[in-house]
Write a structure and sequence with these properties.
Layout: H1 47-71, E1 80-82, E2 85-86, H2 92-104, E3 113-117, E4 120-124, E5 132-133, H3 135-142, E6 153-154, E7 159-160, H4 163-174, E8 185-189, E9 192-196, E10 201-203, H5 206-216, E11 222-224, E12 228-230, H6 236-250, E13 255-259, E14 262-266, H7 268-274, E15 275-276, E16 288-289, H8 291-297, H9 299-305, E17 313-315, E18 322-324, E19 329-332, H10 334-345, E20 352-354, E21 357-360, H11 366-370, E22 376-384, H12 392-404, E23 408-409, E24 414-416, H13 417-421, E25 432-437, E26 440-445, H14 449-462, E27 466-469, E28 496-498, E29 505-511, E30 515-522, E31 528-533, E32 537-540, E33 544-547, E34 561-572, E35 575-586, E36 591-594
Parallel strand pairs: 1-6, 3-11, 13-20, 33-36
Antiparallel strand pairs: 1-2, 3-4, 5-7, 8-9, 10-12, 13-14, 15-16, 17-18, 19-21, 22-30, 23-29, 24-28, 25-26, 27-28, 29-30, 31-34, 32-34, 34-35
Organism: Actinoplanes missouriensis (strain ATCC 14538 / DSM 43046 / CBS 188.64 / JCM 3121 / NBRC 102363 / NCIMB 12654 / NRRL B-3342 / UNCC 431)
Protein name: YoaR-like putative peptidoglycan binding domain-containing protein
Keywords: Membrane, Transmembrane, Transmembrane helix
Length: about 600
């Protein structure tokens, strides 16, 4: 025992080994085989006690060494646990395997976490936001520190979460929360730049939110996340500097792009449309040139210095489709030039740059056309002209046929006749001919195109293609098949079909002095497509109406009205495998008389 003033020996309690007390008195003897000689006269009898003490020291040392070895066996010190999993004494590999097994059985780790933000809350699934226990990092943390051979040391898990996924999930669930910051920008009012200064807001900070979740989970499945003041990265002074250094010089004059084939002048208005000086979600402005917007703004000047690539196409000469190869063109690569353009826009003097010209490839190659299966005539349909080929009505039909001739509709595409031809007016080669307006025939530009529409509709109908949009006439005309016919009027009434086959569809048009024909070339999907009609029902008679005489009055003989069904039958292997019903109600067309007395019965 140490006395007062003497330093107490430093002893690690964790490594102390206590030995049993030795016997005293007459029993404190050595074995008779002890070879030690008797003590000399006048000396103390110490050999036996020294031997005992030495033995005790040896036992103590051996015990301490065993305790140290035992406490530090494996790579994870003894006594270490993580979420209740005992990892002490295991190698890191063993500890990782043990921890993974333990975590897989812990139902808490897959249960949703409730995240509260002010007066709202969201339920977040751990798997959706990458919220997991990082096993390797946790084992590495567990391997640190001192052992606890006679106790337990709980090591908290290392938690990982994806801040961006977590932030996106919370914003989706909570909606707009806090106060959005005003993002800095430079916008153009025409060609005049205007600074938009930033203002701080209150919102979620992804890093702060992720840290809060990591610190609380999985011990708690209800976490409160604070809103923080969000400051844009770009300051008001930096926005003003951007106006001075870039925006104002950019629109100070035109930019000139030179190429071997000519020169393109980019006016300030086109520059203002394509110079992007808005910020990202952090409020950082990275100036850039939007190549697509710039191309749209100078489309016509660019066309004069570029050579458009020619797509491969089908030719129907010789009675069957053949492929005509395409050809490469040239294009000014505005996207590649964007950094150089941006540099030139900062100057008010050096504003001429050389064009980067690249090869423009066809959108459709001969090889691609060859894989579309356009090899046979799938269907054809013909209607008769009501007048000779030279009549305005017939010429309108032919004009529409010319615009559609050779059109290729790829698999999955939808064809729109209005979109394909655009407005059918005098400038497009159409003439005045009777059209139905307000329930009666009146002169109008493009009259007769409904007959071409009906012919095209039936050709695609009998090819088995999907009907998307069509509308039969108000009155029945016997030159068309009842129910399965279509009118058209730009832009309100359209005809559309979808190529729902796996093959390309090529539209072929032809005309004679008294007829128009549309054929569909592709690969047959159905063995046969046919039509069955129901009987006509709900038949109504026309009434007589007298109209003022004049050029706008067109007399008619009147037509009965009725309702009828038409069934499109799809056959394969000699069996009808699909039926499609069309129904239409025709009004009775009045008997219009130009001038004279009104003989209608009311």
């Amino acid at each position: 025992m140490s006395t007062a003033g003497e330093p107490r020996p430093a002893v690690d309690d964790a490594l102390t080994v206590r030995l049993p007390a030795q016997p005293t008195g007459s029993h404190d003897v050595l074995d008779s085989s002890d070879p030690a000689p008797p003590p000399a006269p006048g000396t103390r009898r110490t050999g036996r006690r020294a031997l005992i003490t030495g033995a005790a020291v040896l036992v103590l040392a051996a015990g301490a060494g065993t305790a140290v070895t035992w406490a530090y066996r494996g790579e994870v010190p003894l006594g270490v646990t993580v979420l209740g999993a005992e990892l002490g004494g295991l190698s890191r590999t063993e500890a990782a395997a043990e921890l993974r097994t333990h975590l897989a059985a812990d139902a808490r780790l897959s249960q949703p976490v409730t995240v509260r933000v002010e007066d709202r809350q969201a339920s977040v699934k751990p798997a959706d936001v990458g919220l997991v226990v990082d096993v390797d990092a946790t084992v590495a943390a567990a391997a640190q520190g001192s052992p606890s051979p006679f106790g337990e040391r709980a090591v908290p898990p290392v938690v990982a979460v994806d801040p961006d996924l977590l932030d996106a999930a919370l914003r989706t669930s909570l909606g707009t929360i806090g106060e959005p910051m005003t993002k800095p920008a430079v916008v153009f009012d025409g060609v005049k730049p205007r600074a938009v200064h930033p203002e701080a807001g209150r919102g979620l900070d992804p890093a702060r939110t992720a840290a809060t979740i990591r610190d609380s989970w999985p011990a708690s499945r209800a976490v409160t996340v604070p809103l923080v003041e969000v400051h844009p990265v770009t300051t008001a002074a930096e926005v003003d500097q951007l106006v001075t250094d870039l925006a104002e010089p950019a629109v100070s004059g035109p930019l000139t792009i030179t190429a071997d084939s000519g020169t393109v002048t980019v006016p300030p208005s086109a520059i203002a449309k394509s110079l992007v000086l808005t910020s990202d979600k952090t409020g950082r402005i990275e100036p850039r040139v939007d190549a697509k917007k710039l191309r749209a703004a100078v489309k016509k000047p660019l066309a004069k210095v570029e050579k458009k690539a020619k797509d491969a196409r089908f030719s129907l000469k010789g009675g069957k489709p053949s492929i005509v190869g395409g050809a490469d063109g040239t294009a000014v690569d505005l996207a590649a030039m964007a950094p150089e353009i941006l540099t030139a826009l900062r100057s008010t003097t050096e504003r001429t740059i050389a064009a980067t010209v690249t090869r423009a490839e066809p959108e459709l190659t001969a090889a691609e056309l060859g894989e579309l299966g356009v090899k046979e005539k799938v269907s054809t349909f013909t209607t008769k002209f009501t007048g000779g080929l030279s009549s305005p009505r017939s010429q309108n039909i032919v004009q529409a046929a010319k615009q559609v001739e050779g059109t290729l509709v790829l698999p999955g595409e939808t064809f729109s006749l209005n979109k394909h031809t655009g407005e059918r007016g005098y400038q497009q080669g159409y003439q005045d001919a009777p059209v139905i307006l307000g329930g009666k025939l009146t002169p109008g530009v493009g009259g007769g195109v409904s007959q071409f529409t009906t012919t095209l509709f039936n050709a695609t109908y009998y090819a088995g293609l999907k009907d998307v949009e069509h509308k039969p006439h108000s009155y029945y005309f016997d030159r068309y098949p009842a129910v399965i016919e279509s009118t058209i009027f730009y832009p309100d009434l359209d005809f559309k079909f979808k190529n729902d086959s796996p093959y390309g569809v090529l539209l072929d048009t032809a005309w004679t002095r008294n007829s128009i024909t549309v054929s569909v070339w592709s690969t047959k999907v159905w063995d046969k497509v046919s039509t069955e009609w129901s009987r006509r029902r709900n038949i109504t008679s026309p009434r007589t109406i007298t109209l003022p005489a004049g050029p706008s009055c067109i007399a008619t003989g009147g037509l009965p009205g009725f309702t009828q069904d038409a069934y499109r039958l799809f056959e394969r292997d000699g069996k009808v495998v699909k039926r499609e019903k069309f129904t239409w109600k025709y009004d009775a067309e009045p008997n219009y008389i130009c001038g004279g007395a009104d003989d209608s019965a009311g």
